[in-house]
Amino acid sequence: MHARLAFLAVLAVMPGSLWAQHEGHHPPAAPAPLPSPSPSPQSPSPSPTPEHPMDHQMPGMAPGHQMPGMAPGHEMHEMMGFLGPYPMSREASGTSWQPESSPLEGIHWTRGAWMGMVHGFADVVYDHQGGPRGDDDVFGLTMLMVMAQRPAAGGTFGLRAMLSIDPVTVGKRGYPLLLQTGETADGRTPLIDRQHPHDLFMELAAVFSHPAGEHGSVFGYFGLPGEPALGPPTFMHRFSGMEIPEAPIGHHWLDSTHIAFGVATAGVTRGRWKVEASAFNGSEPDESRWGIEWRHFNSASGRLTLNPSANWSLQASFGHLKEPEELEPGVDVDRTTASVTYNRARGGSSIWQSMLAWGRNAKDPGDTTNAALLESTLRTGLHTFFGRGEIAQKDELFEGDTHEAFDVGKLSLGYIFDLMRSGHIALGVGGLGSLHFVPAKIEDDYGSRRPRSFMLFVRGELR
Q: Out of 90, 137, 354, 399, which residue is the most buried by the measure of CB atoms under 10 Å away?
């Protein structure tokens, strides 16, 4: 415990020291154009056109026009999507979409034909969860994402990596979080009223897309680990949820498959539409958080996404997961999800994003349970306000052979104040308070029908 606290103390000053080496690292105004191939004698000389898929201009935009959601100085021609002919700001975790007006934050760079982005955050959190099933803890939440792409074979080839040192800064038992369930710390006992740490390697993936017509593409994605086409963007990657330093209690109904050890996805984009299907391993990560495990494909999913305008994204998905929980062998899950995300860029540095999502797990054998979530984050100037409301039917709150489902709920509200901004670095302090709702039948276990909790935290972020 003392070693972890010392490590967290170092983590708390990292944004102002270690990350400061990136300060002032701005991308060049434009990448050097690639040489155009010489025309063949049999064909007329073509007019000069950019060969890099990311150099294509959006209709009606002048060269160098800023992309929706991109911070000033990040020109639109620098980062186009991995999966199709549209701005990178439309893409979120795995192969999921978000509203195109969403912020595209981080450090953007070019190296020859390669273009990329680095984004991440580190939180140091004091956590108090009330009642007899609660606990107090100090832990760190971390995420580092690196993406790079280049033209290849007439299309776009890309690499993605998402890493976390949660196995050190959170620990095997996770952090206290009332009403949370899922996974295990030791391979024998379930984590209940605690949120599991994420693995060191959350995503290591390769992507290739090729144009299909003027406004479409076909693409393939392979990850070990990776994220299949199932659910909305994961909570650590969508703006409506990424500023909230706790996982949703409905995580395992919506986006828990964001770390799957073996994923292959194929899809098609056409303008505002995307259709995709995945084969993957449906097992949740086990208690060994440091390594990469190759597991055979045993599950499948499909997702339909529509972005009707720059501010909206809608998805519906279905997946069959083979024995997702390590402690429930022989139990498969059919998961259905639907979500709507709205993003509004309010001018200047103000951004407001909200998401409404629903998930349904049908166990075989077992019962069917549902969870729903509404979350919203508003950042304006130095101030960030966020909130999340959830309801869920939890059937894993007590150990034993009989998994009775209880209707529970949670409401969290919080705030972050940016103490310092320098280049791409933001350092802030924040807090949140949560009110939980449990039925009378388990009131004695939680000490109240309305147990309370709070978190205080310091956050460093690359923007």
A: 90
* CA-CA-CA-CA dihedral for 164, 170, 173, 178, to nearest 10: -110
Query: Which residues have C-beta within 8 Å of that of residue 166, sequence separation ≥ 6?
Result: 140, 141, 142, 197, 198, 199, 200, 289
Residues with Cβ within 8 Å of 112's Cβ and at least 6 positions away in sequence, in order, are none
Q: What is the pLDDT of residues 175-185, one digit of tens each?
A: 999 999 999 99
Rounded to whole angstroms, how far apart are CA atoms 270 and 354?
Answer: 25
- Are 116 and 108 within 8 A, CB to CB? yes
Non-local CB neighbours of 265 within 8 Å, separated by 6+ positions: 94, 95, 220, 221, 222, 226, 228, 229, 276, 277, 278
Identify the burial level of 177 via C-beta atoms within 10 angstroms of its C-beta, where 0-12 means exposed, 13-18 middle and 19 or more buried. Answer: buried
Before 53, cis peptide (omega within 30)? no
Q: Using one digit for the tens of pLDDT, what is the confidence trace for 334-362?
A: 999 999 999 998 777 799 999 999 999 99
Residue 184 CA, distance from chain mean position: 21
Report CA 190 to chain centroid distance, whole Å: 24
Radius of gyration of the chain (CA): 22
Measured torsion, CA atoms of residues 369, 129, 256, 342, in degrees rounded to the nearest 10: 90
Separation between Cα atoms, residue 407 and residue 397, nearest integer Å? 11
* 207 touches 82 (CB < 8 A): yes
Q: Read off φ and ψ for residue 76, nearest 5 degrees.
A: -65, -25
Residue 92: CB atoms within 10 Å: 20
Instruction: Provide the whole-model pTM.
Output: 0.84
Instruction: Judge whether 202 and 225 are in contact, CB under 8 Å.
Output: yes
CA gap 181, 196 in Å, rounded: 9
pLDDT at 79: 80
d(CA 84, CA 50): 16
* End-to-end CA gap in the chain: 31
Q: 274: Cβ–Cβ under 8 A, 6 or more apart, which residues?
A: 83, 84, 95, 97, 267, 268, 303, 304, 305, 306
In this structure, the chain runs to a length of 463
As a whole number of angstroms, the distance between CA 129 and CA 123 comes to: 18
In DSSP notation, 96-158 reads: -B--TTS-B-SEEEEETTEEEEEEEEEEEEEEEE-STT--EEEEEEEEEEEEEEEEETTEEEE
